[in-house]
Design brief:
The complex is a heterodimer of chains A (109) and B (142).
Chain A (H helix, E strand, L loop, with lengths): L1 E7 L2 E10 L4 H11 L5 E12 L1 H16 L3 E5 L3 H10 L6 E3 L2 H5 L3
Parallel strand pairs in A: 2-3, 3-4, 4-5
Antiparallel strand pairs in A: 1-2
Chain B lengths: L8 E7 L5 H15 L3 H22 L7 E8 L3 E8 L22 H9 L2 E7 L2 E9 L5
Antiparallel strand pairs in B: 1-2, 2-3, 3-5, 4-5
Helix pairs in contact in B: 1-2, 2-3
């Protein structure tokens, strides 16, 4: 799994490429928790994720809860049908703000 | 020459180390496709197996990579049977599917995924160890 973080205005965009599973989700968790306090909005691009399991979804829930505690925005974009299916199976998609693309996620469209 | 009946089967003996999960996922997805499931079902069955293995790694072996997990996936007359055997701590039945569906708690998602994807799921404690067995029926479209 490869993770990159870039600044877009006062937001941070995190890009993830590869599989998010029990072995790799701790690295994603660490990156997201590190970036969250440093940005007004944290946007996670899931477009290059080939696989995500419940440990990855649990990581996103943890970050969402912390974003609410810190009064930050945590949003998702670029969900493939395969990733969307895992969200459907875990019944948690409704708790996230999900956008089609980066412009919509950052409100710059 | 008569065609021999097909009984596809794969067996793995893997350490309780998440680095090996991608190996099993790749094999599981290919096996499910060979049996006859479509791409979405192959992904779902693979996810269910991955979640079951992750539960063994986390809860039976407490993330210690030195445990042994024996995995068998075999084609049956109706579809597939997946079985796991481990010698770690026994599963806590009170925590299986205990999470409220749709809530914002991060834990307990895996057993719900397994239950949703597979048709039957059982957790048994046997003299050989903890045995997880799940089956799924291949429903052929006319």
């Amino acid at each position: 799994m490869k993770i990159t973080v870039r600044d877009v205005g006062d937001a941070k965009v995190v890009e993830v490429d590869g599989d998010v599973d029990l072995g790799t989700s701790p690295a994603l968790r660490s990156t997201l928790f590190d970036a969250l306090p440093r940005a007004a909005r944290l946007a996670l691009n899931l477009g290059a994720i080939r696989y995500i399991d419940s440990s990855g979804i649990a990581t996103l829930i943890e970050v969402l809860r912390d974003s609410q505690r810190l009064n930050k925005e945590f949003v998702l974009f670029g969900l493939s049908p395969a990733v969307m299916e895992v969200f459907r199976l875990t019944h948690v998609i409704r708790i996230f703000r999900v956008f089609q693309n980066e412009q919509d996620a950052l409100g710059t469209a | 020459m008569a065609t021999a009946p097909r009984h596809l089967r794969m067996q793995f003996a893997m350490p309780s180390d998440p680095r090996y999960l991608p190996v099993v996922r790749g094999a599981m997805c290919a096996l499910a496709a060979a049996i006859g499931w479509d791409e979405a079902d192959c992904r779902a069955i693979t996810l269910a197996l991955d979640e079951a293995l992750a539960n063994v790694i986390r809860h039976a072996y407490h993330n210690c990579p030195g445990g042994l997990i024996e995995l068998e996936c075999r084609e049956t007359a109706e579809g597939i049977e997946i079985s796991l055997l481990d010698n770690g701590d026994a599963p806590d039945r009170s925590k299986i599917c205990a999470r409220e569906v749709g809530c914002d708690q991060p834990g307990g998602l895996g057993t719900h995924i397994i239950k949703d994807v597979m048709d039957t799921v059982s957790y048994e404690i046997s003299p050989q160890g903890n045995r997880f067995v799940a089956t799924k029926i291949l429903r052929k479209t006319p």
